[in-house]
Each structure stands twice: as structure tokens, then as C-alpha cells.
Amino acid sequence: MTNNDVLRRVRYTFDLNDSEMIAIFAAADCEVTREQVCSWLKADDAEGYKSCSDEQVATFLNGFINQKRGKKEGEQPAPEQKITNNIIFRKLQIALNLKADDVLDLFKLVDFRLSKHELSAFFRKVDHKHYRDCKDQVLRNFLQALQINHRGVEPSEETIDDK
What we know:
This is DUF1456 family protein. This protein is an all-alpha fold and 163 residues long.
């Protein structure tokens, strides 16, 4: 999954407008313009499309955590320079205050089976012997389950891109 796809799906799932997207970046102490946000949200083959960097999507997710859970006291965490599906998954889980059982229940909405042990492997340290990379399929199913849970419908791909 591309960083832009993650932004588009989160925007659609939580029905965020441009101003709210800008406010989420601001919650992570980052200023972005409406033009930047619009260029990241365009379809990959649309004129004016710009790729969203790892650092920008990490900043957005940090802002999303701050917006949903409240800003932590003291210095804010620096956005990761290199982001993985594991980090995206973890940040969304933190922002939405989801426990392992909540995530597993979400996966049931899209008929995706995962055990608690498999789920915990995604959140271990990279050098841990039971660490496992989160594949695109897992993250895509998680985002789809969030959409069903928060919006109550399964949108078509065109709907996500047009939003």
C-alpha cells in the first residue's frame, strides 16, 4: 500500500475534510497547505498528484493520535523517517485506543482470520524472534474493517478516490 492510499482511506473512514486533515497535521506541530493535502489525496494517475513521504504520513498519524487521545505532556515524538505497515497499524491502533480483542473483532467484519499471537507479532521489536512483517493484505483488511465499523458500508474504490 502506498502512503497516499493510507491517507485516502483514513480520510474516507473518518469523513475528514481538508480543514480537518490540516488540523491533524497541525496537532503534530506540522504546517501543511490545502494544496499539499489535495495533491496527496488525488488518484495516482491524476494531474497534480504528489507522493506522500514516509515522514509526512508518520507526522499525520502522530497528529491523529494527538487528536484522538490528546497531546502528551512534554516533547512530541519525532516522526519516523522510514515507515512500515507495522508502524502504520500500530499508530492507528493507538489512536483509536484498540485492544487486541477489538482488532480481532474488527477483522471478523471482513472475514479475515488472525490469532492473538499472530497479531501481537506485528507489534514486537524488529529484532524479536517472533516479530512478523505486516503485509499489505493485513493492513488493507484492517483499514477496510475500520471503514465498515465507522461508516457501516463497504465503499467502492472509486468512492475513496473521489472523496
